[in-house]
């Protein structure tokens, strides 16, 4: 959504200004053309040359620069912007904007733009909780300004609490959401992701190679498109997607309970998790010591969450995944019919670029009318949007 878009990145004077450098990198990597506007105080924390080098555009710091500009700078930038981000945004600049004060390059450009404005505050916790600041934020929200609320944590001033600039990845995700059409607004999407673990004893477990990347990509994409998203995830190394309700579980039975508890309220369920089919019949209370005698582990079947959802399906649209190593279409088609699914995303995990723990996938989509859609190798973020496009189309026909 950011390819070929013009983004104005406003940077104000706070210690968190260094994080704006990483945000700039994410924006340019996504294909955006970024113009940076810095307040005079911001230049005390990060040199303009840093932003100029990474953006490959001049950095704007002065309202009047008649030598280098042949046009009115703040008006020109304001007219070209598809999105305006202020990160970090101090209490001072938020107070100015809330009361229509435009006395420098940043505030005049914001006042002149018709683009959406996304503000990421960063300040001392007492400043953030001050009623005057809260009134200013509420005033801007009432006028359509968008906010990425700060997180809690240790602040540079030594205090701990609210006021810490949200991470650049979260601000970037919010920027994507601003520019994404909300074709899933009003829908509750439940996504499962990652592996499950079935414990043998306190230190060993049965699991699989799933990284959770596909499910997390679907959760992020659905959230951007306006859905209320619940992500039920097994153990992964991934950060919880910004703006998504994330439920962490470990075993297949825990995942079943979490999913069934929320199933009735959902519109769309996408089961991307790699759930263990079996678990040990008994979990040893202490670590099992090795011995010279052969060990036998008795396994029992785990509940089939997908089959249970299909058997109790009301108005929900149900999507399953089939990761296979042989007879891909035959096995995926069997899953589609036996589990009463609306769509199956099938992939041969033996193919290069389509297995676990990679950022790409090669998928085939199987529909209830017998159609099979073959998709080329693509990134999992791109595939997530393709899947949601097809889900939207199938849902509209139900």
TrEMBL record:
Pathway linked to the protein: Cofactor biosynthesis; coenzyme A biosynthesis; CoA from (R)-pantothenate: step 2/5; Cofactor biosynthesis; coenzyme A biosynthesis; CoA from (R)-pantothenate: step 3/5
Phosphopantothenoylcysteine decarboxylase: annotated segments: 1-188
Span of domain Flavoprotein: 7-176
Cofactor binding description: Binds 1 FMN per subunit.
Statement: the UniProt record of this protein carries the keyword S-adenosyl-L-methionine: no
GO MF term list: phosphopantothenate--cysteine ligase activity; phosphopantothenoylcysteine decarboxylase activity
Enzyme Commission number(s): 4.1.1.36, 6.3.2.5
Gene3D superfamilies: CoaB-like, Flavin prenyltransferase-like
Binding residues for CTP: 277, 287, 303-306, 321, 335, 339
Pfam families tied to this protein: DFP, Flavoprotein
Keywords: Decarboxylase, Flavoprotein, FMN, Ligase, Lyase, Magnesium, Metal-binding, Multifunctional enzyme
Region: Phosphopantothenate--cysteine ligase, residue numbers: 189-398
Domain DNA/pantothenate metabolism flavoprotein C-terminal, chain residue ranges per copy: 184-392
Reactions it catalyzes: N-[(R)-4-phosphopantothenoyl]-L-cysteine + H(+) = (R)-4'-phosphopantetheine + CO2; (R)-4'-phosphopantothenate + L-cysteine + CTP = N-[(R)-4-phosphopantothenoyl]-L-cysteine + CMP + diphosphate + H(+)
SUPFAM superfamilies given in the database record: CoaB-like (SSF102645), Homo-oligomeric flavin-containing Cys decarboxylases, HFCD (SSF52507)
Cofactor(s), names only, from the UniProt record: FMN; Mg(2+)
InterPro entries, A to Z: CoaB-like_sf (IPR035929), CoaBC (IPR005252), DNA/pantothenate-metab_flavo_C (IPR007085), Flavin_trans-like (IPR036551), Flavoprotein (IPR003382)
Catalytic machinery residues: 157 (proton donor)
NCBIfam families: coaBC_dfp (TIGR00521)
Family from the record: In the C-terminal section; belongs to the PPC synthetase family. In the N-terminal section; belongs to the HFCD (homo-oligomeric flavin containing Cys decarboxylase) superfamily.
Function of the molecule: Catalyzes two steps in the biosynthesis of coenzyme A. In the first step cysteine is conjugated to 4'-phosphopantothenate to form 4-phosphopantothenoylcysteine, in the latter compound is decarboxylated to form 4'-phosphopantotheine.
Name this protein carries in UniProt: Coenzyme A biosynthesis bifunctional protein CoaBC
Species of origin: Geomobilimonas luticola
């Amino acid at each position: 959504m950011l390819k070929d878009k013009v983004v104005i990145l406003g940077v104000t004077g706070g210690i968190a200004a260094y994080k704006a450098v990483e945000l700039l990198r994410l924006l340019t990597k996504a294909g955006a053309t970024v113009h940076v506007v810095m307040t005079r105080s911001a230049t005390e924390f990060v040199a303009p040359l840093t932003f100029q080098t990474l953006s490959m555009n001049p950095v704007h710091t002065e309202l009047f620069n008649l030598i280098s500009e042949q046009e009115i700078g703040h008006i020109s930038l304001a007219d070209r912007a598809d999105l305006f981000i202020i990160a970090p945004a101090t209490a001072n600049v938020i107070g100015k904007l809330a009361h229509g004060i435009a006395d420098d390059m940043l505030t005049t450009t914001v006042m002149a733009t018709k683009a959406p404005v996304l503000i990421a505050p960063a300040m001392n916790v007492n400043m953030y909780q001050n009623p005057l600041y809260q009134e200013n934020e509420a005033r801007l929200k009432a006028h359509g300004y968008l906010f990425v609320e700060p997180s809690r944590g240790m602040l540079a001033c030594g205090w701990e609490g609210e006021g810490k600039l949200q991470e650049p990845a979260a601000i970037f995700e919010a920027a994507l959401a601003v520019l994404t059409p909300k074709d899933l607004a009003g829908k509750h999407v439940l996504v499962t992701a990652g592996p499950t673990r079935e414990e043998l004893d306190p230190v060993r477990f049965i699991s699989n190679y799933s990284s959770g990347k596909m499910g997390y990509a679907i959760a992020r994409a659905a959230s951007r498109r306006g859905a209320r998203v619940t992500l039920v995830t097994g153990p992964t190394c991934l950060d919880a997607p910004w703006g998504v309700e994330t439920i962490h579980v470990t075993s297949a039975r825990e995942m079943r309970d979490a999913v069934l508890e929320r199933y009735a309220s959902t519109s769309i369920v996408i089961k991307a998790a790699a759930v263990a089919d079996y678990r040990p019949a008994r979990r040893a209370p202490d670590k099992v010591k090795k011995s010279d005698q052969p060990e036998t582990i008795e396994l029992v079947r785990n509940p089939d969450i997908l089959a249970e959802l299909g058997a109790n399906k009301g108005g929900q649209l149900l999507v399953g995944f089939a990761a296979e190593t042989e007879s891909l279409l035959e096995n995926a088609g069997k899953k589609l019919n036996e589990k009463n699914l609306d769509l199956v995303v099938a992939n041969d995990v033996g193919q290069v670029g389509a297995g676990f723990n990679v950022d790409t996938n090669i998928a085939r989509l199987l529909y209830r009318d017998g159609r099979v859609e073959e998709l080329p190798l693509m990134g999992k973020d791109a595939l997530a949007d393709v899947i949601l496009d097809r889900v939207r189309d199938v849902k509209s026909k139900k």
